[in-house]
Design goal:
The complex is a heterodimer of chains A (about 220) and B (about 220). Chain A is α/β, with parallel strands linked by helices and about 220 residues long. Helix content of chain A is about 15%, strand content about 30%. In chain A, helix 4 links the parallel strand 12 and strand 13. Chain B has a domain of about 150 residues: 3-Layer(aba) Sandwich (Glutaconate Coenzyme A-transferase). The chains are: A alpha/beta (about 220), B alpha/beta (about 220).
């Protein structure tokens, strides 16, 4: 059994984003998704600081100090892109105008609760940024994360141990081991990596898993 | 005759008082009125409340104002950055108060003040620590948190071009919080790259109409 790399998790999530979607990619792992959109699909990426139509990272001589992404790194704009102010940027986020918000997570619960904004490290002041807005407002919230912590503890929990970002919002989770759907009747395994069985996956997951009738192995290319 | 142009940074901020609530635009360093903030630092007003997305980085601008103890409280979404030591140190030493607000909520609270409204119900932060102590209400089957308007005594802003009526244009993602903050303060002061003759800004392209602007200072330079 070979877990997916971080880039393969991003590749898998990218396959599900349909042509014409408006999408916000959270900082970290979700940002990689932009690199793996299948050819022929036009996707409009939104940035919380007032940009629609983010393009690829600019080369050194194309960097414009006034054009950055949500991670405050250099950005570029595609033809058809637009700039707008912060209140409109968050109106788009909060008001259900984005098709997908793809977020990283410390933990997700079997009820779709999301914890991704603070580990309550006493050495630093807390910061929330746009995390709660992005978790509350999109048409669909999907999470990309490792299936377990470095210590092997499940990230998909019966209840989140870290403070919540939003309650009951996550519909789909892409991990390095599986694709999971979270619904009213629990957590459904849609896909698993080759060679992994439900018993083994369940051992790394707190909520009770059900295997979808039409489940399949994840076929991720080397990316 | 309307002429909102003032000759220097010092003159622009000369009457800001101790205890003022200052809206400071910018997302990270982009669109941040660093020269106006430095002028306010020199002017010496103390006991300030700063509303800003971040809490400054490096030693100048907002970070300088915080490091020298002029700021009593920061209302922001994300105080940490690559070099936010000024805020981090003041926070650890208990010398500064932090009100953490989700990014879109800060922005909408200011818009709400600008629009003359008494508050709004938001789905963001429901069921989280940032909603503690706030009224929660169910509307059409969904839970919302009541958020109050946030008004500034002063807004410090950065734009690209202005005319003597105070009409403004911005560059790319440097627009961010500037238009909303311009509307939400009793006194709006803007630093701009260039002041142009009245009528030169295409009326279709005015991003902030002059009614929201009180003072304009030209800095020159590339941006």
């Amino acid at each position: 059994m070979k877990p997916l790399s971080r880039r393969q998790i991003a590749w898998r999530a990218a396959q599900d984003i349909g042509d014409g979607s408006y999408v916000n990619l959270g900082i970290g792992l979700p940002t990689l998704v932009a690199d793996f959109i299948p050819d022929g699909r036009e996707i409009v990426f939104h940035s919380e600081n007032g940009v629609l139509g983010l393009g690829k990272a600019p080369s050194a001589n194309e960097i414009d100090p006034d054009l950055i992404n949500a991670g405050k790194g250099p950005a570029s704009l595609l033809p058809g892109g637009s700039f707008f102010h912060h209140t409109d940027a968050f109106l788009m986020i909060r008001g259900g105008h984005l098709d997908y918000s793809l977020l990283g997570a410390f933990e997700v619960s079997g009820e779709g609760d999301l914890a991704n904004w603070t580990t309550e490290d006493p050495d630093y002041p807390p910061g929330v940024g746009g995390a709660m807005d992005l978790a509350a407002g999109a048409k669909e919230v999907r999470v990309l994360c490792e299936h377990t912590t470095k210590e092997g503890a499940p990230r998909i929990r019966n209840a989140c141990s870290y403070p919540l970002t939003a309650a009951g919002v996550v519909r789909r989770v892409y991990t390095n081991l599986a694709v999971l759907d979270i619904g009213r009747d629990g957590v459904l395994v849609r896909e698993m990596v080759e060679g992994l069985g439900l018993v083994e996956l369940q051992a790394k997951t707190e909520p009770k898993l059900r295997l979808a009738d039409d489940w399949k192995p994840i076929a991720a290319p080397a990316v | 005759m309307i002429n909102k142009i003032v000759e220097g940074l010092a003159e622009a901020v000369s009457d800001i008082r101790d205890g003022a609530v200052i809206l400071c635009a910018g997302f990270g360093a982009v669109g941040a009125p660093d020269e106006l903030i430095d002028a306010l630092h020199e002017q010496g007003a103390r006991d300030l409340t700063i509303v800003s997305n971040n809490a400054g980085n490096g030693r100048t601008g907002l970070a300088g104002l915080i490091a020298s103890g002029h700021v009593r409280k920061v209302i922001c979404s994300y105080p940490r950055s690559s070099d936010s030591t000024a805020f981090d140190e003041a926070y650890k030493a208990g010398k500064i108060e932090l009100e953490l607000v989700p990014q879109g909520t800060i922005s909408e609270r200011m818009r709400c003040a600008a629009a003359g409204l008494g508050g709004f119900y938001s789905p963001v932060a429901v069921g989280t620590k940032l909603a503690e102590g706030k009224e929660t209400r169910e509307i059409n089957g969904r839970l919302y948190v009541f958020e109050k308007p946030l008004k500034g005594d002063v807004a410090l802003l950065k734009a690209d071009r202005a005319d003597r009526w105070g009409n403004l244009t911005y560059r790319k993602s440097a627009r961010n919080f500037n238009p909303t903050m311009a509307m939400a303060a009793a006194l709006s002061i803007v630093q701009v790259r260039e002041i142009v003759p009245l009528g030169e800004i295409d009326p279709e392209g005015v991003a902030t109409p002059g009614i929201f602007v009180d003072r304009v200072v030209e800095l020159g330079g590339k941006r």
